[in-house]
Structures are given as structure tokens and as C-alpha cells.
Amino acid sequence: MTITSLAVIVGLIAIAPFLSNLSRFPIVVVEMLLGALATYLGIFEKNEAAHSVAETGFLILMFLCGTEVNLKSFIQLKQEGMLQKIFLYFLILYTLSVLIVLTQKLPLIYIATFPIMGVGMIMALIKEYGKNHIWLNLALKVGVIGELLSICALVTINGLYNHGMSIELLKTFGVLLSFLLVIAFIFQGFKILFWWFPSLKTLIAPHNDSNNQDLRFGAMLFFLFVAIVVFLGLEVALGAFIAGMILATFFSTHHKLHQKLNHIGFGFFIPFFFVHVGTTLDLRSLFSDDQILKNALMIIVGMLSIRLISSFVTFRSFLQTPKNTILYALSDAMPLTFLIAAATLALQLKIITMQGYYSFIVGAMIEGIVFMIMIKIILTFWKTKSTPSPTSNN
After folding, report:
1. Could you give the C-alpha distances from 183 to 76, 152, 221, 246, in angstroms and in order?
2. Considering just the CA atoms, what is the radius of gyration of the chain in Å?
């Protein structure tokens, strides 16, 4: 039965692009809908093998998100004075999130979920529109920092609910901080090493390589850092993300390696993850419980509203036009993968019920559909004077 279930998901992966082209829905959303339909029709049965492959797909997605992050680009942000604006943006985001949770008497998990970010859907936008749009270029850079904060937020939630306000929680934070400091030293060490011995890059990842040595090196980094964070008891996605950042920072010119990784990830593992997420949805429960949709809409409105306010306060002058600011807020409000990860963690810790879990999943899917369509409509019909493109696509 395991092989049959795997075959069902692989078949859905194969037909998803055709249905996405026909419906004009984001392929990620189509994959999740197909997974939900497969469970509803009874042609897929949950099993551990499919869960393991899907978890690997999520980690590979985090790895590929990391490969979009060249740390050298943050030096330019600092020089342009953008880092201060970005941190102000996050300060406003989390402040508004706290206010909404306290005034509406929502579970405390929403303080972390309303501002949560991920660059998975931003990467999908970049694939469709390119990085030369000022709002999308900014969304990627802000999304990277936001993703790191989101990982830290998930670690915090996990620690609070597992250990409470105790010494164990402090140990968890200490391990996280120590790990990040060690990573900073590793980056500096690699920088010095490659400066003194530039030929090492070619040795590690040759440009003409019939043995796929570069791909093997990337796989080694991926599994090494995932194993380290598992050993330390930290959020697994953090290790995959950092491994990707190392490749992006020191091997940014090795385009063949990035193409190979994208083909492997987006060709199988990542679609498998999204289809599998869809299989966790019970359509019968969704159709019979109006509260799920109401909660999902509340999540969507909360996430978008705090981003619109924060964007206009912080980035209005940089983005130059209201159109760009709204586009930025929409692109930033689709943290599909991390919203699902947060919902899954909250369900495991029994912070939310199955109804709450479904609300987060439905909200993530609606965001992916509606916000993608809104972005396309705004770009097509809202005509403004042209604005300069960013000078760098990093």
C-alpha cells in the first residue's frame, strides 16, 4: 500500500503543471488541492514513507530558499541605510500583532503567526516576474531576514510549550545563540580561506564536472547542517536554510549547481511536500464547519493589514509609489510554507485544535490564490510612471 500511495502522489505531481496552466492558479495551491482531493476520494492512505519524503521536500525547499540569500548583498543594504528601515518594519509588524492578539483575545500563537514570513512564494513570484521589480527585490531581502526571525519564533514557541519558563528554555536559547555565533565565525573563516586560496572553489565545485562533484558537495552541506541542528535540538529548517546560504554566498557564480539543485527540488521533492500537505486536509470537515473559513479569513485579514500598515510607514519613500508598496505587502503576506510549519507545530504541541489547524491551511491556500491573482491584476491594469529598477539583483 505504501508504494501505491507514493505512486498516487507522483501522479498528481505530474498533472499539476497542466492544471495550473489551465486554471491560472499558483502551482503550489493546485498541488495542495490535488492532495486534498486524493484523500477525499479515498485513493491515498497516509503512511510513514510518504511523510518522510514530504519532510525531506520541506527541508530541500528551505535549502533552496537559502541559496537565494547571498550575505554579501546585506553589506549593500547596510550601506544604503535599509537595514534600519527593515528592523523598524519588523518592530511595527510584531507590535501590531501583539495589539491584535490582546484586543481580540486570540491564542498567543497568533503573535508569532501573523508576522510570520517565508520566501517560498516570493521565489515563485521571482520565477514569474524576475527580480528587477523594486518591490519584489525588496520582498526577497526582507523575506530572508523575516524567515530567520520566523525560525527563531518557532524555536521559541517549541521551547515555551515544552519547557515553560525554566532553565531548559534558557538552555534552548543559549544553544540557538551559540549556534548562530558559530555559523557567523564559519562564514568569516570561509571568507578568509577562499581569499587566500581562491582555487579551492574550483576544486570543490569544478565548472566542467562529469561526476557531479558540485552536487555532491551541496548534498553534503545540506545533510551535515541538518544533522547538526537535529543533534542540538533546534528547528531542522534552520540547518537546511544555512547550508543554502553558504552555497549562495561562496558559490554564487556556479550557476550549473543552482540549476541542478532547482531541478531536483522543484522537479520532485518540493511538489511532493505540497501534495502531501494537501492530503492532511479533510474536505468533509472543511465543508461542514463554517468556523474554519471564518478563522481563515481572520488570519488572512490580520496578516495583510499589519503588512500594509508597516509597509506604508516604513518603505513608502523607498518604493516610491503606492502601487509598489501594495505589491510589496501582498508578496510579503504569502508565507505558505512557514504558516503550514507553524500550524503543524502548534497542533503537535496541542496549542490549537484540528479546526484551528485547518483554518491555517485554508488561509495559506487562499492567500496563495487571491494574492497571486491580485498581484497580476495590479501589474496588468494599474499603470504608473516607470520607476528605476534596483541596481543589483542579488
Report:
1. 21, 15, 13, 10
2. 21
Residue 7 corresponds to which cell in the numbers above?
505512486
CA 327, 333, 338, 344 dihedral sign is negative
Find how far residue 36's CA is from the centre of its chain: 21
Q: What pLDDT sits at residue 328? A: 93
With beta carbons less than 8 A apart as the criterion, state whether 20 and 63 touch: no
Contact 314, 89 (CB under 8 A): yes
pLDDT at site 100: 92
Single out the residue of 116, 190, 183, 179 nearest to residue 146, CA to CA.
116
> What pLDDT sits at residue 164?
62
* Residue 266: C-alpha distances to residues 64, 123, 261, 361 (Å): 9, 11, 8, 21
Domains of the chain: 2-381 (1.20.1530.20)
Average pLDDT per run of 10 along the chain, which is 394 residues long?
A: 82 91 80 87 84 87 76 64 86 93 84 83 77 85 81 71 66 76 79 75 67 80 88 79 80 69 84 86 76 90 94 90 92 83 77 85 84 86 60 43
Q: Which residues contact 29 (CB under 8 A, 6 or more apart)?
A: 365, 368, 369
Closest CA to 86 of 313, 336, 320: 313
Nearest Cα residue to 361 out of 301, 278, 298: 278
pLDDT at position 311 is: 94
C-alpha cell at position 370:
487571491
Quick one: which of 116, 346, 67, 342 has its CA closest to 225?
A: 67
Distance of CA 58 to CAs 51, 273, 338, Å?
11, 6, 10
Q: How far apart are CA 155 and CA 173, in angstroms?
A: 8
For the purposes of burial, counting CB atoms within 10 Å of the CB of 297, is it exposed (0-12), middle (13-18) or buried (19 or more)? middle
Q: What are phi and psi of 254, to 5 degrees?
A: -90, 75
